[in-house]
Amino acid sequence: MNERARNATGVWRAFALLGLLALGTLTGAQTTSQKLQQLQRELTEQRSLSEAQRQRLEELRRNIASLGQQQRETLGRLDALGEDIAVMESQGRQLQLRVQGVEQEIRRLEGLIELSSARIERLKTSVRTLMRTVQRERSSMYLQVLSQAKSLPDLLIRMRYANALGQQNVRLVRTLKQETETLQELRARQLDQQAQLEALQRDLQAKLEAVRERRTEQQALLAELQRSAQGQQALALQTQAQQQVTARGIEGLVSGILQERARLEAERKAREEAERKRREEEARRLREAQERLRLERERLARLARERLAAQQAAERLAAQQAAQRAAQQEAARRAAQQAAERQAAQQAAAQAQRQVEREEQAITARQQQLQQQEAQAATLSVPLPDNVGRLSVPLAGGRVSVPFGREGSWTVLSSEPGAQVVAAADGEVIGETTYANEGWVVLVRHTPTLFTVYSGLQQPSVSTGARVSRGQGLGFAGGSPLLGADSIRFQVVVSQNGAQRYVAPEF
């Protein structure tokens, strides 16, 4: 994973898990009754416990205490399984995000390797041509250039140009060596990233398998409770208690994110600025590479003209020598040799042209990647609107099964099992976490003051920091064993003057 991806994922992930860690202080190895008691105590200390909440929590505690020993043990095991699943799913999600980051880095390295390989092939051809020329001409060309000087100033000028040509040849060889080392480094990094990817994929597969095993045991316990009236009563109490505890954890997560919004926004802008500078620097290097290619094209054209002039002069000289010596056989041999050299030169020129074109294509492809990244960054930097209008129903085919306020500060929506959960309006994903027996929770900010919370999802299909449009998929229902495969919990939060207020959704 590249540095930007690691930083962005690390910061957002750490904060997205804030709610899960806060919930851990409520859960741990506690029983359901103990969780309710601690929740009641914390709400009382914070003076945020309403009379209705107090009565609801007291009644839940009394009812749970009246359950039989076996039922309480089953609920305890169900609690423990839910917490294990929540932790494992959170770890699996982190692994999934790391896999995506490593895959993105591998794709970036593949583009750079293609560009470096094309450049090396062009340089190799230039060096081979240079070595053949040096081997053929040896030092005679240098001496011939100097011997043709007509005066001392002319001699000095010819020496300067001859030395410059030699230095250019040295730079050519040095550039090839440096580019080869760069390519070797890129390939080593690619192999390292590939090894990391394979290890992460193995870890992710193992984590998913462990979650499936816990899910199977969880479903068995739920089925056991559903077989008797007492079990159904215990499960209903468990669901109500879990709702109260989870709702408090989600409220803490929302509150924490809102309080930290300014700091997170500053960090996001700093990351965007650093990434912008990195893209600008790479774009500058690509422009320089294009300029080098332009000069290379001019050099190849000049060499082609010089070769053509030299070949024509050699052919005229050979014709004169053949006529003078009347050596037809020698003339034929020389003509054949010149034709072969001309063909070899043409082939070399064509190969050099193809290599230049390949390098240009690699540069263009990398520039397009940078332009796509720039467009994505520009989309993320656009401020959210002040108003998004009426919210859409966030569950495909959804209907209200539990209205707002009946059980708490949420609305329960139901549809077909595994129905898609979608964004209620355009916005930005500001948090994602998982809770015991609640499934995945996704938070979306639509305006500076309007937020929505989607609970009971399976693995989210979006990640923190992503922009989403109205109706875009966030995941699928079925993540909460207590809500069931066909339902989610939906909350609308209005933040004003540092305070959060949960309101009934208006679809």
UniProtKB/TrEMBL annotation:
The keyword Coiled coil applies. InterPro entries: Dup_hybrid_motif (IPR011055), M23ase_b-sheet_dom (IPR016047). It comes from the Bacteria. Residues 29-119, 169-228, 257-376 form a coiled coil. Residues 414-491 form the M23ase beta-sheet core domain. This is Membrane-bound metallopeptidase. Transmembrane segments: none annotated. Keywords: Coiled coil. The keyword Ligase does not apply. SUPFAM superfamilies: Duplicated hybrid motif. It holds the Pfam family Peptidase_M23. It comes from Deinococcus peraridilitoris (strain DSM 19664 / LMG 22246 / CIP 109416 / KR-200).
